């Protein structure tokens, strides 16, 4: 089971409200990004590139009008403005995970956030076969394109020592509470801790995970 910022913290928020109201819809927008946007990808990965690439290849599942819907990853891009950050691009990813089975809510979706333009690069790489796990032969050697792509991308995506990044998440829970329509919106913006030199992604995922471990 995943238990970081999302999936993780957003599950806890939803579970809290699910006990107190009739939830009709749940939306989570989440992403981790470098403060400095550098060409060409305008992205840095605080974790394994293979896991990041999975967000761009694994079909995205969400719930709409009580039915499970599956869409391609990177689909339905949408520009959204965030205070202090500016405009980011949201797209479908397979982040609901266990919520699909544990929550009986008519509408649920999780979407990933990146700087505008990033997903076009990912689409080109994906459609060109660079994310494929099928073995191909190159000069008589068997390789998986995704292994080569990860090897090439990791140096470009790896955060440098002291490089600042941030984690942003918006969770919107809508439903009926005390016989009235109610909307709860949570905005999280966490930045690199300069004092302890702790990356934001480490803080938001690690602290959630350790808190849950203590509860267990």
What does this structure look like?
With 216 residues, the chain is of the alpha+beta class. The chain has one domain: Dihydrodipicolinate Reductase, domain 2, CATH 3.30.360.10. It contains 6 helices and 10 strands. The strands form 3 sheets. The chain has a 6-stranded mixed sheet, with helices on one face. A two-stranded antiparallel sheet has the order 2-3. A two-stranded antiparallel ribbon has the order 7-8.
Radius of gyration: 18 Å
Principal-axes shape call: globular
Count of β-strands: 10
Helix content: 25-40%
User: Which blocks of ≥5 consecutive residues have pLDDT under 50?
Assistant: none
Query: Distance between termini?
Result: 13 Å
Order of strands, widest sheet = 4-5-6-1-9-10
Mean pLDDT: 94
Total helical segments? 6
Secondary-structure element order, as H and E?
A: HEHEEEEHEHEEHEEH
- Determine the CATH superfamily: Dihydrodipicolinate Reductase, domain 2
Count of structural domains: 1
CATH fold topology? Dihydrodipicolinate Reductase, domain 2
Helix/strand structural class = alpha+beta
CATH top level? Alpha Beta
CATH architecture: 2-Layer Sandwich
Instruction: Summarize the biggest pleated sheet.
Output: 6 strands, mixed
Strand content: 25-35%
């Amino acid at each position: 089971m995943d238990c970081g910022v999302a999936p993780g913290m957003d599950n806890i928020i939803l579970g809290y409200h699910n006990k107190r109201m009739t939830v009709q819809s749940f939306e989570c927008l989440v992403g981790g990004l470098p403060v400095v946007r550098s060409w060409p990808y305008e992205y840095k990965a605080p974790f394994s590139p293979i896991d990041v690439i999975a967000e761009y290849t694994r079909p995205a599942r969400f719930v709409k009008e009580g039915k499970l819907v599956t869409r391609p990853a990177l689909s339905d891009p949408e520009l959204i403005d965030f205070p202090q950050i500016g405009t980011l691009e949201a797209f479908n990813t397979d982040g609901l995970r266990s919520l699909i089975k544990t929550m009986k809510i008519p509408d649920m979706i999780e979407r990933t956030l990146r700087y505008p333009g990033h997903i076009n690069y990912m689409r080109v790489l994906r459609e060109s076969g660079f994310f494929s796990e099928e073995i191909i032969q190159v000069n008589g050697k068997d390789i998986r394109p995704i292994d080569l792509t990860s090897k090439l991308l990791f140096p470009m995506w790896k955060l440098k020592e002291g490089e600042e990044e941030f984690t942003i998440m918006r969770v919107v829970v809508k439903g009926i509470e005390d016989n009235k329509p109610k909307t709860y919106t949570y905005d999280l913006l966490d930045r690199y801790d300069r004092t302890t030199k702790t990356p934001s992604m480490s803080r938001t995922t690690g602290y959630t995970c350790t808190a849950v471990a203590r509860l267990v």
